[in-house]
Amino acid sequence: MAAQPPPVPAPPPAPPRGADPDGYDATTTGDRRRQYDGMAALELEPDTYDHPHEEGEETETVGLVLQGGLGGFGNQNNRSSSSSGTAPSRRSKFAASNGGVSALQKLYHTIPERPQSFSVRNLLLLGGLAGLTFLFVDNADVALELITSGVGGQLPDESAGYQFAPHSSSFGGENNLGHPGGAKAAHEGKGVAFQDIIIPVANYGAASKSLNTENIVNSIGHYMHDEHRSPYASHLYDKPKEFLDEQQDRYVKKMDAVRKEWGAWSFEDAKFGVRPLATFDDVDYKDLPNDKLTPGSWQTDEEYVRKFIPEAKALVNRVTEGIYAEYGSPIKKKDGTVLTEEEKAERSRKWGPKIIRDGDDSNKDDPPGIATLSGVAFDGLVRKLLHALITNDEWYAVLGGHSAAAGHGNQFQQNRQITFHHLMEPVFDKLGMRLVSRNMAQGGVGTLQFSLAGKDMYGEADIMEWDSAMTEKGNTVDLWNKQAILSGERVPVILNQFHFEIMAETNGTAMMGNLGTDAEMVPPTDDQEQAKTVPYAARWLNGKEEKYNAICWEPRSDVAPLEQQDAHPASQVSWHPGFRYHQFQGRKVALILLKGLAAALDQWEAGIEADGFPLAEKYWHVGSMYNKIRENLRTHVTTPVAEGDDIRSPCEHSFQFLPRVCRVAMRGYGMWEPRAHNDNDFLNIIEPAPNGYRPSWSEKSYYSGFDVLPFNQAVPDGEVDAHLIAIATTFPAPDLDHDWVEDDHSDTNSTSNNDTPPTRRWLRAATQRAFRHKPRVIDTDAYKTAKKIPPKKSTSRRKASRRLGDGDEVITPGRGWYASGWRNLDDFCDGSAQSTCGRDAHSKCLGVGHNDNHKDVSGNSLSGWLVFTVPKMKEGIILIRMEWWCGKGNELSKDWSEVNDGKTLDDTPYNATLTRHKRILIEKEGREGIKRRQMVERQELQSDDGEVEEMGHRHRQLGKPTPDQLIHKDLKMDVAINGKITKTFDAEEWRKYIGEMSKNCAVWPILDDESMAERDWDEGDEGEPVEVGIRFRIDSQPHQGYCISHVYYA
Question: Buried (b) or exposed (e) across 576-595, using 16+ Cβ within 10 A?
Fold first, then answer.
């Protein structure tokens, strides 16, 4: 008799509704604990399941590699799943086999070679091979070939989120934590959230970190793109089960209708289960020569490719037509006939994008449509897309701008960049790519605070849009264009209305375009009655009615806000567009990429016909294109030294004190959010004081996981929804058990046998635990670096100190600097759809989700030295962004009368002297300062001339402290480089840099050493670390504080 599956075990004791147990420990203050104790608790039985990877768990290297490799991803998506825990599907078996092979390859290099370890090393390898042979004999030939091959022998890394059928749909199934099947799977430790995460790392040394664990786990994507489970039927809603079941039934019928009317993705691999994937990570830009492609990979299978391309074309066409239909230009006319070829050509001419090619004026009379692109830009876009298609790469879409671009007045998930993402993510997924989209816009400022850091704040970009005209005009925008090209690994297609001289400076090679703002191709809305005849997406696009539908909170069954929630987000003002405008702008970018994808797929077919299979490298390699654009720009942007005409670029005019920032790739660390990767947080490079103290955050988000979709934002039945077209496939729903029952309010909330479905209480607790679970990340970046670069001696100030010449002073990190911001939260705000921001326990708009947040470290004359280490510096450039007007005192040092409270070298662990209560007071001081800073920075008013004016500038006219009041005559700022004071700013020189080059962005040059750039660096050397110290001295006002938020370097 076959063994029965075990009963569903009870989940762990849950926190009060909304309280994240990772956020508050036993030392939480009494008031906070009473608030949580008063909330409706989920009274759950103890957990009987040992979850696989708890945060902080210690595991041997060998176990880590084998477990990560053998874990597999196989049955986690819609196409093949097993809910019973019995034998895995063919897909999941091969996933385990592939992972095991990869693990054994890594294992040989990770077991340390030391005396008397040879037998253990070989025993482990032989044991692993024996296990693979026993479990996966059907794939033994492939496994042995890959283990012994030297080039291209990697099988795909399932733990990084790629499935073994790269052109299937990977969303939903047991990864959808918003539904019972996913919650039950998570309780058993299944799903991507419980896999070891290996984050792909570019071989190109100057690449900016851009991919986070949260982007890979992508719980919101699995919730939103599940074609078989309605996002509005989740057990996380505070709605009756009958209502949610009705939502699910309607969704199933709606998806069936979509498949019938529009078609659906149906591509399958005839050789599924025995196909390896090529690895491209060991060459710059992933430009792998065709003769190095892994034999048997899909890229080498002509039959596969010729079957895939038509399926991909059909998907691209379906989604394109879906967008047209959403905005009143469907292919099917009202009489039931379809557009003729001439009518489709006219529609395409009207919508665009308009491609402008040198020497070709055939379309000069065409309207601009959704966008204009140079021929160079469109051709580059096609090449970049072909590259991503062939390499199964990430594709990064980035937006920089002001509050209107950020989507203020709406919820974050409604902004233009994220609505673009929600539509295009399932398209890119089926085509074998991971789409990462980021809205990096911020209210009340321009873009300079980010562009000075190159792509370290924005992250890598393949298409990059600038929209900050209300808050930033002039020459600093030229720096944005230049750093978009010079920095990071990838050169993006740039959408910006201000090109300056970038085309001439790159000899016509920069990929430039501009996104349109008009909506002439969309039927207008005149009144309420006529609006009924206009498609829902296009209705009231002018914002005269139905402009906003954002809310602050959709009631949930698992989270109860502490505060009464506001009806809607703030900033619903005349100059902030509503949700329909944002979606339309996002659809425009989607159409640009869909047109590029269509052209790329055509090029793929034509290239094969012309030059044979596989597609020749000349069509899809990107490295030479990137290098040519960059070299042209570096050559042309050179500050003239001879007398005569001033031919400096606009950027160089802005940075006359350091023009080199306009022609070198800048990097940076910062504290403002959003920030593409937390590794680039300025706090990470600050050296601790001798007692271990350094600025940090202690407040955590109030709850974890994605926000459920508001019901009032659902597309009405009967309206075209391009997103449903994008997610549709012909594959059946996974075999998952979604049965559950309402809470019975008894003392138990779990089942005692396999016949009784779990309760909602059980499900939401399982979901919340999965949300809070931290997958283990295998740092491949460190692994690669260790193989390439020998370890260097530590420069930690705690291990060594430098004396200054014959003096006695030592540069010792101070203990009086502290971190504060608009929100003092340690949360995840990378600008992506996966971000979870602004969830302060006492927020009155928890669901707004906006990422922009100003944070900094603050210090005064008593704080001591702020010491930080800048890595990989090669050009000899360091600048810092500071605020002279932040107006802060310092709760940490308010009772001090001498530097560091006279404890500069005291190494007593700071937790013994700085109590949690003290830290809360510090952060409270930061919270109380929010009102002051919001008046100065965040609120906006409309001036008489119609332009947006930052509240801060108005406040200065109304009596904000002046520089004379805050910059005292005896101010001195010392700068130390590698332990030696190299410069001291006096008040007069310091004041030279308080002028804002862009709104709310003033920078001070700390180092400008051209001799460093002129060194004879070894090939591939990325520079060297430099330790920097900054100290304020004001004898007359020692408690006067200043704020530092960013450091920029090259």
Answer: bbbbbbbbbbbbbbbbbbbb
